[in-house]
């Protein structure tokens, strides 16, 4: 029996050591497979015309991010403030930049933390700005048999995936690791 426990402990130690690099890499790959295209597609709906379209977001961008304010001004963005423009422009840029940084494994912890903030704001906007709080299926409930609610179920998994990257970094095959390795080599 002691031999089995020693073998188990040895294997557990090896797996734990490998997890430090493998888990964050798998988290980044999962993010790329499940959420990257979602955020890119969403960001594309917010772009205005031309090469600098991110600086003049579409009417739809304002309607997605500030639905009640847009209704109040009958969808005339010229009546909104520079604050609205800054939030929509910053959100649009973040919707492209943060996922790209995560997939590349560059500034992974900071990008994942930014994405957590993004998902929280997105969820609150969906609940209170778009009225999702009034629909039990959209809000959902934890510890029930349904696992497909938009906010509490899906977004909790997104945040957990991103929190893994905040705590563990980019893992193997990340630009963070490459830059850290180069910095360590030049310091020695």
TrEMBL record:
<keyword id="KW-0812">Transmembrane</keyword>
<dbReference type="InterPro" id="IPR032808">
    <property type="entry name" value="DoxX"/>
</dbReference>
<dbReference type="GO" id="GO:0016020">
    <property type="term" value="C:membrane"/>
</dbReference>
<keyword id="KW-0472">Membrane</keyword>
<protein>
    <submittedName>
        <fullName>Putative oxidoreductase</fullName>
    </submittedName>
</protein>
<feature type="transmembrane region" description="Helical">
    <location>
        <begin position="156"/>
        <end position="175"/>
    </location>
</feature>
<feature type="transmembrane region" description="Helical">
    <location>
        <begin position="21"/>
        <end position="40"/>
    </location>
</feature>
<dbReference type="Pfam" id="PF07681">
    <property type="entry name" value="DoxX"/>
</dbReference>
<keyword id="KW-1133">Transmembrane helix</keyword>
């Amino acid at each position: 029996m002691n031999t089995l426990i020693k073998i188990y402990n040895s294997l557990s130690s090896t797996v734990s050591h490998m997890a430090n690099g493998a888990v964050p890499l798998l988290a980044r790959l999962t993010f790329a497979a499940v959420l990257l295209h979602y955020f890119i597609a969403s960001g594309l709906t917010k772009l205005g015309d031309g090469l600098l379209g991110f600086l003049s977001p579409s009417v739809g961008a304002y309607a997605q991010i500030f639905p009640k304010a847009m209704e109040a001004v009958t969808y005339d963005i010229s009546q909104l403030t520079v604050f609205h423009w800054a939030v929509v422009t910053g959100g649009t840029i973040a919707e492209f930049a943060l996922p790209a940084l995560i997939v590349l494994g560059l500034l992974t912890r900071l990008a994942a933390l930014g994405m957590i903030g993004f998902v929280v704001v997105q969820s609150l906007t969906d609940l209170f700005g778009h009225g999702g709080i009034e629909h039990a299926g959209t809000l959902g409930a934890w510890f029930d048999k349904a696992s497909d609610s938009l906010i509490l179920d899906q977004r909790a998994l997104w945040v957990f995936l991103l929190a893994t990257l905040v705590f563990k970094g980019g893992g193997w095959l990340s630009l963070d690791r490459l830059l850290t390795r180069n910095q360590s080599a030049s310091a020695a």
